[in-house]
Amino acid sequence: MITYDYEYDLTNHPYLSEIIDEDSGVITQTFTIPPGVNSIRGFRIKVSKFGSPSPIHYSIDYAKGGNEIADGTISPDDVLPVFEQMVGGDFPPVPVKSGEVCYLNLRVLAGKKPHNAYRLYGPNTRSDTGDDSNIRLPYWWYQEVEALDDLDIPLPQKYHGAQYPDYRLGSRVRSDGKSVWNISFAILTDQDPDPLGDTEQRFEFVRQLVAPPFTEWSFLRDTSAQPGAGDLTFDGSWGMERLTYAAPTLQNAQDEIAAFLGRVMGVNLDGWRKSKRIVFRIEENRAIPPGSEGSLIHVTPNRVTLTARDPKGILRAVHWLEDQMLARRAPIVACGTYRIGFRYDLRMAPGIYPAPTYYQLQDAQIWTRGYVWRLARAGYNAIYWQVNLEELVEDSAIFPEMNDPQALVAIARLRSVVELAAEYGVDVYLDLKTGYYKPFSEAVYQRLPEVRSFARHGNYPCSGQQITLDFYSETIGNLFRKVEKLKGLIVIYDTEGFFSCFVHNSIHKCPYCKDFPIETLSTRLFQTFAEAIRVANRDTELILWTYFCDEEWNYKVIRNMPPGVTLMACYSQFVELDRCGVKVLTDDYSVCSEKPGDYYLKIQRLAKEKGIRLICKTEDTFGQEFVSTPYTPCLTQHQRRWDHVHQQDAQGFLAQYVHIGFMPNPCADLTRLNVTTVEKDGTPVILSPQEKLQTVAEMNYGAAASAYVVKAWECFSQAIHDYFPYTWGVCRYPGPLQSAVAQPFFMDPKREMPRRWSRGYVADLRWTGIDQRFLVDHNQKWDASVVSRCFQQFLRLYGEGIQHLQQALATCESQYRDAVSSAGNVARMQYLLVRSLTNFIQFIRLRDAYCLCDDTTLREALAYVCESEMGNASEALRLCQRDSRLGFSCEGAGTVRGGLFTPAAIRQKIASLQETLAGLYLAK
């Protein structure tokens, strides 16, 4: 194979890129045939796409203007949005000669940036990150930051170019004749197999997420399943009475049930002139549960009638019907009248975006029709984006200095996704921030010095002054006027996110705001937001998120919130855990605790007193325990969380945050069971927690393997619930657990770690300490010994759970093998991450002792630990190469586009282990 490409080692920015469209002309990359190659049979280039461009035409020529080796097109359907991958063409082997220079020519046939184009990638040969708009890093990463709790540096202090060597056996020439950097390419020859072999490309998992709807559905019918008394069976005698002029949401619901029965159950609803029919009705009916998603499903032997007051309800009714058939693995449904409702009317999740995720409107959009469908099918009805006020300023009459040239494009991108999401009954909310995209313009302060407040994130002007409020109203109102289907705005107002003069009770620092009560300032600001978002639609929602601020000033702010707003609070913060006799408090976003924190209960009482709507931020898939694997398979613990959440008064929830975006997984199926309410013939259908777990196991892994899978979940849940040592140091700052399988083992304690930022690498055991505010009893001791003891118990239980999954794999039906294997990959990687840290604790202790005394026993013990970790890392490498989900992460301070560990990063770690072992063996 002839190749020139880059990898994500996570310590350097690896690529250069540029946007190409129909105006880019012909792009030519030359390459030289090496000795021993007699023919070529295909090629790959690395691209991603914006919107819906035309195909890319390619040709490969023997010489410039010479005979063609091959030509054809690359379909845009093969190219991922946002994330780059190798794609290309294959052709019958064509003879070539050693030393011959060939020309690969590329041209986009139609489509113009910024909405319909491609991004072309190549190795970064520079020492800096370049001017690549696809790698917009937060400007504050490079400002002075203090060490966080003396544990480690929380953000990168450098992120330079990878300095790959130039490709010496060819060059790239644009249509204007200018030579520029070489693109990533691979030429398939007679000397090699496909360039990827059994290895998944880095972002391969995204392909399934964005694929067209129904792509993953396959025949699952158990042909031996028989209906019982009172059941109906869908077969060839059934048809569907379509509403042909229905809204897109209803059309999509009709398409879905037809596709499900055809692909999964082998039943074709070919026509409506059948004696048995599926019928859809949109009407007002008192029997329908409240809300736009409620429905009635009337099932008789000859007719199934789905009735709702809104097309969203029909779509949810279809999902429920599908789940009944999936649970039985047959097109069989029990007859009766069902009332389908939802316990929570707002169920939000984020999408997959590369880190840092603060600039999702600045590039291509991940929200394809298939991705929105998968999120809706999983049971969520809303998505949310992080956006920055300063990237939305289009034509300000108040602060024209803040106008952003990309605002029109950003708003257009947002509008297209909002309209697409609406077709699947999914609303879009914006998590509004200030100061993340760029600092506020100093030119405003030169013109209006009186609006300058104290220095803070983004250096925004005084939020207490009318001119600033007018700017907010102008910018937000313009957005909601242009994107009229936008559902709402989320504002974290007390700690971070949207920075105002009263964040952290800082009004005394502002020369203007210090003279006003804090509740006056906050009410004016919130009222400005509320009025601005309702310029085109009175049903939009303002969600005010109190992240965590257990102080009287915040309670004043809450008590004075304007009517009609929604309050949101984090469910699981600062919950007490007992770990090996030591009591600690969690930080945020944990799954190891199922009960609500005291702060959430306080906010809940306040919301009740004030009579305002309350929703909660909770975890239904993962927590801060593991943010470099797609979900945490502790479904028994997730179910315990739901059982406790149901006892609270929340009317909705925001699940996850932006560390990992939505991916279909069994946790999402469990969520769907817990948010849906069902009555059959007037009697509530209530599943026990165990029945829910069993149902999810059977839906995902089949009846034969389900008992083993549930046992595995119980083991993983006990490990998380009873033993996971949740602290800042372990999970977040510096949080080495998240990238532990790539953590170097250096003998020199002064050697600089390549990734010294949060969720990166550590040089010692300071991360095993604890900030005193998280220690319940300050007389107790929390150190490496406690962390190690917790992890050993965790590994014991995870090991038992993995054995149960191995039994599931041995007994499952063939169509479920990939799903069981995938679940095993996730559990095994979490096991390896923890084992890496336990090995690292041993290594540091032994290394520090060895540095004081060159002892043979210590040296042999060090070598033993390193050999153990070599096996651990090697297994992690195999898993990571096979499953591209592993190691990926969207966010977490300092996380970069490639994630938290990659095959390249693990190979670097293995090389460092080999170096360490060589030194230890030579010392003998």
Question: Could you characterize the architecture of this molecule?
Answer:
The chain has 19 helices and 31 strands. The strands form 6 sheets. It has an 8-stranded parallel beta barrel with strand order 20-21-22-23-24-25-28-29. Strands 14-15-17-16-19-30-31 form a 7-stranded mixed sheet.
Task: Give a brief rundown of this model.
With 924 residues, this protein is of the alpha/beta class.
Keywords for this structure?
924 residues; alpha/beta; eight-stranded parallel β-barrel; seven-stranded mixed sheet; 19 helices; 18% strand
The helix content is 25-40%
The biggest beta sheet reads:
8 strands, parallel, barrel
Number of strands: 31
Low-pLDDT parts are: 145-151
- Which structural category do the helix and sheet elements fall into? alpha/beta
SS element count, helices: 19
- pLDDT averaged residue by residue: 94
Widest sheet, order of strands: 20-21-22-23-24-25-28-29
Content of β-strand: 15-25%
Distance between the termini: 42 Å
Query: What shape does the CA trace take?
Result: globular
- Rounded radius of gyration (Å): 29 Å
Outline the secondary-structure elements:
Layout: E1 2-4, E2 15-20, E3 27-32, E4 39-50, E5 56-61, E6 68-74, E7 85-95, E8 101-108, E9 117-123, E10 172-173, E11 179-180, E12 185-189, H1 205-210, E13 231-233, E14 238-241, H2 248-265, E15 276-282, E16 295-299, E17 303-308, H3 311-328, E18 332-334, E19 336-342, E20 346-349, H4 369-378, E21 382-388, H5 407-422, E22 427-433, H6 442-447, H7 466-482, E23 488-492, H8 518-532, E24 541-546, H9 552-559, E25 566-570, E26 576-579, E27 582-585, H10 598-610, E28 613-618, H11 635-645, E29 652-655, H12 666-675, E30 676-680, E31 683-684, H13 689-701, H14 703-723, H15 728-731, H16 784-811, H17 817-852, H18 856-882, H19 903-923
Helix pairs in contact: 2-3, 3-13, 7-8, 8-9, 11-12, 11-13, 11-14, 12-13, 13-14, 14-16, 16-17, 17-18, 18-19
